[in-house]
Write a structure and sequence with these properties.
43% helix; alpha/beta; 7-stranded mixed beta sheet; 20 helices; 6-stranded mixed beta sheet; 19% strand; 551 residues; globular; single chain
């Protein structure tokens, strides 16, 4: 372990040195003037790229690319499914010249998806595999012989293996895992169709019975796993389904009490190939910049740097593969041929296959919320109940069957909680209507007791979890201001640290809105293993929808 930490430290220094020029250039840059960005390169070309958040780790590679080609990449991040729909609908044309997702497979299923791309370059690869605690892998025999997905499902059903995975409606790693597992459990050999999905359903239900950790992004899932080490019982996490690169980086990061054994199921995986693609709508002068950057990314120098800094496999066969990727040949699972099958699989996962969700929504209705802000809150709750037009992947963010929702409005103190169960069928529709009506009845008044109300939410959530342990339980706190009444952050953290481990395992996801103090909310979510979603003065509905991937 000391040797791994020493190597990880040396590697961190190397990456920091590579990033230093980028940081210096960024600190000296002007306001959008390509020739006044600290580098003095008047002929520098800029490519605006809509990308998946997982490629943030390419920063040192892109800085080297800038030095070599004079092409600077401006990245805007989005979820894979959401980004694909934006590209296919033409919504990305005004803000992006190119796209860079972990995969374009879902994009290619959408009407207009293939036609939106002028050309594409495969830049690197990473299969979605399994990382298992070393002792657990030995216990199950997976260190000596790779299991099938069916054997992994059997272990999950027997409660011998519990794992984390991202939400397939929000993250490509979860989507790829869902496709890979379903294909394998249906017998493999050909792409999924509706009959194959039906045949795989019992095995999928067994498999996802072992999922105890979820996330809207691959990176945050890794961070959550680090914080979850040592949990026992229903909250235990024995491993992760994630990109091979993320799992290898976890092993190199020096934060694990026990290394992960990389398990590559022998009946096949789905691999991300990270296509760097130019949009047809891009201005003609962007084509030359794209061609130069794409060509450089496939040079041996760039491919070696990508492999060393991100633990992804090179896309160029001539670059020697690092031994850490193993010696076996991976069997690639076919991808669904229709959007209907892909979306149906995601819908089935959310509504039926995975553990149900229960969430306490702590909603600020203090005096500062009066007017447009309160209207936005009502609209956001309405969208979660399915009110209005639900386009594309938005329908995956509405309240799901089997979900339990508690509304806890607060001002200067927490008010009376209101609990709803989204049962399948008409009863669920009625519960959604009642949630919408409760939201529309909210009125603004008084001060802001953020932490006293969050403490009350923990009491409620702990009770829910005690009654329903096999659930994803979380708290969402939305506020537009600073704490003015009740206990403060320091006292909340002191009390939180004294609670039982099962209660402390419940994360808080905070929505910063209006004039809310970012430091307060960061302190709250860092203490509780959650995350801040910044709505600012913008779209509160979008922030609530983004959180859905983490519940």
């Amino acid at each position: 372990m000391r040797e791994a930490q020493r190597l990880a430290g040396a590697r961190a220094v190397l990456i920091a040195l590579l990033l230093l020029p980028a940081l210096l250039l960024s600190s000296c840059s002007g306001s959008g003037d390509d020739g006044a960005d600290g580098g003095g390169a008047g002929d520098e070309q800029v490519l605006r790229v809509l990308a998946g958040s997982e490629i943030k780790d390419l920063a040192p590679v892109l800085e080297k690319a800038r030095e070599a080609t004079g092409v600077r990449v401006e990245l805007t991040y989005t979820g894979t499914l959401e980004g694909a729909e934006q590209v296919a609908s033409g919504g990305a044309e005004s803000s992006a010249d190119a796209i860079w997702f972990s995969s374009n497979r879902y994009l290619n299923l959408l009407p207009g998806g293939k036609g939106a791309v002028a050309t594409s370059t495969r830049t690197m690869t990473s299969p979605v595999v399994l990382g298992v605690r070393e002792s657990k892998a030995k216990e199950l025999g997976w260190d000596a012989s790779a299991p099938t997905w069916g054997q992994i499902a059997d272990a999950a059903k027997a409660k011998k293996f519990r794992f984390g995975m991202t939400d397939p409606s929000a993250s490509n790693s979860g989507f790829s895992a869902l496709v890979g597992v379903a294909t394998a459990l249906s017998g493999g050999g050909s792409a999924l169709d509706s009959s194959k999905v039906a045949s795989a359903r019992p095995g999928l239900r067994a498999f996802f019975g072992g999922q105890t950790l979820t996330s809207g992004s691959s990176g945050w899932l890794a961070e959550a796993y680090v914080k979850a080490q040592g949990r026992t019982g229903a909250d235990a996490v024995d491993g992760l389904v994630n990109y091979e690169s993320v799992l290898l980086e976890l092993n190199d990061g020096g934060q694990l009490s026990e290394p992960l054994t990389i398990v590559r199921p022998k009946d096949g995986v789905v691999t991300a190939d990270y296509p760097f693609a130019l949009l047809k709508s891009a201005a003609p002068e962007k084509r030359a910049a794209y061609d130069e950057l794409a060509a450089w990314l496939r040079t041996p120098e760039a491919q070696q740097l990508i492999m060393e800094t991100t633990s992804r496999r090179p896309a160029v066969p001539s670059v020697k593969l690092d031994p850490k990727f193993g010696k076996g040949v991976l069997l690639e699972q076919p991808f669904p041929a229709s959007r209907q099958v892909a979306d149906g699989l995601i819908e089935s996962y959310l509504q039926d296959l995975r553990r149900p969700t229960q969430t306490v929504y702590v909603l600020d209705v203090s005096g500062s919320m009066e007017g447009p802000r309160l209207d936005q809150l009502k609209s956001a709750l309405g969208a979660l109940t399915g009110q209005g037009s639900q386009q594309g992947s938005d329908r995956f963010t509405t309240f799901r069957d089997r979900e339990r929702v508690v509304l806890l409005p607060f001002a200067g103190f927490p008010m009376e909680p209101q609990e709803y169960l989204i049962a399948p069928g008409a009863k669920g529709d009625d519960a959604r209507r009642r949630i919408r009506d409760s939201g529309n009845a909210l009125s603004a008044r008084g001060g802001t007791a953020i932490f006293a109300s969050t403490e009350k939410a923990y009491d409620i959530a702990a009770g829910l979890k005690s009654r329903n342990p096999d659930t994803f339980t979380s708290i969402v706190v939305m506020t537009d201001g600073e704490n003015t009444q009740g206990i403060g952050l320091a006292e909340f953290r002191r009390r939180y640290d004294s609670w039982p481990a099962e209660q402390r395992a419940i994360p808080v996801f905070a929505v910063r809105f209006g004039d809310a103090d970012p430091a307060e909310l960061k302190g709250l979510t860092e203490a509780t293993g959650g995350k801040v979603f910044d709505a600012g003065s913008g779209d509160l509905t979008a922030a609530f929808r983004e959180i859905r991937g983490y519940q």
